[in-house]
Amino acid sequence: xxxxxxxxxxxxxxxxxxxxxxxxxxSYVKKLAEDKxxxxxxxxxxxxxxxxxxxxxxxxxxxxIIPSTWHEVATTEVEPRxxxxxxxxxxxxxxxxxxxxxxxxxxxxxxxxAENASKEFTVTQAKLLLDQCRARGWQVIFLGAxxxxxxxxxxxxxxxxxxxxxxxxxxxAATMSVNSARAEYAATGAAMGFTDEEKRRLAEKK
Length: 206
Description:
The chain is an alpha/beta fold. The protein has helices at 18-34, 86-99, 123-135, 150-155, 171-188, 196-203; strands at residues 2-9, 39-47, 57-65, 104-111, 139-145, 163-166. The protein has one domain: Rossmann fold (3-Layer(aba) Sandwich). It contains six helices and six strands.
């Protein structure tokens, strides 16, 4: 049994990228359906709406949806606003994944900036949970939305092969690259990642 978990940063700085980000998510799930990947999809968004002193808001926008029945997420459903409690959100998402009896899992984390508001978990704790995922053969992909996320992803234990900086205008191309790797992972269990050429192309500003 397989599942895809998408964690999307909805902090205020995502406003200028929000339509593109949701379009990339919708395109990713549409391609899963076209490729007939036997998986479910959960999309969660997160922020700290009251700022650095407030609690995290972790909202599941789509829960365990079969790709062929996915209803596209509209910009009016959820909007960017607060800060970025990435440690807390990552740990909550991983705990959701671990609660399911999944053989293969793809975790895709899209953010446009660094952690700045977590209250419960540290980077070290988030890395430990993600390490447990990777040890099970689950795939963890970090997408930096118009953001050089190399240092961020490395702090969570992610390899550079499964981490990519994506310039504005290239988010859908990035998720299409993930789709290609996802299909191979579904078929053979091969690790997901990006080629050097894909990383170069996706980081180029249009």
